Amino acid sequence: MPTCTMPTTILQHEPPEARIAAADWQAAEDALGRDGYAVLPALLTSAQCRELARSYTDEARFRSRIVMERYAFGRGEYKYFGYPLPDAVQGLRQSLYPRLAPIANRWHAAMRIEERFPATHDEFRDICHAAGQRRPTPLLLRYQVNDYCCLHQDLYGDHVFPFQVIFLLDEPGRDFEGGELLLAESNPKQPGRADVVPLRQGDAVVLAVNHKPVRSGRGYYRAHLRHGVSRLRKGERHTLGIIFHDAK
Predict the structure, then answer these.
(1) pTM
(2) What does the DSSP assignment read for 26-65?
(3) What is the model's pLDDT at position 185?
């Protein structure tokens, strides 16, 4: 499993921003390039996870609710946060983005994609808003028994940040069974493959949103990726999704 470790001096009571700063981002970049995802363990404490999961019932925090079955997305539901984002969600978005933006720029250069990303999320958000992508995209998802999510990509406009981050807010084997995070890669030069991404409560996984660069004898080409969630067999599963580009 591509997991990025942190020094043991980072304690559970320290804020997520400290754990983000302490993560091994070179190892994360290596895992993203190899596998299309990288696990960052224990970025949130169990108390922080519970608080975020409980906020699902606070309708004032959200701009919309999506019932997946209505749109053939799967079964279950999720809610998009509205602006202003909750402090915890805004803090994660602001802290993760500058760690990922340099990797995103290197990926775009390798894949010969013109767009480059600025150093701060505020600058990138302004670019999105100027292009009409003004609706916030961080979201909370809730899965109950027999719920699942079809393989998909989270693309919301012309400006797409190459990575998103998913936090698991409940504990597998205790709070739920099933509901594994799935990642499928479609490679034009190799057979397709799929991964089950193992996560514990509080772990984060960085995913490639759309495609990743793959080295060949003539440079790089693009392999496409999609992600989804397998059927939940028992309990309830909440996740927090941090998407960095806003939606039209």
Answers:
(1) 0.92
(2) HHHHHHHHHHSEEEETTSS-HHHHHHHHHGGG-GGGEEEE
(3) 94
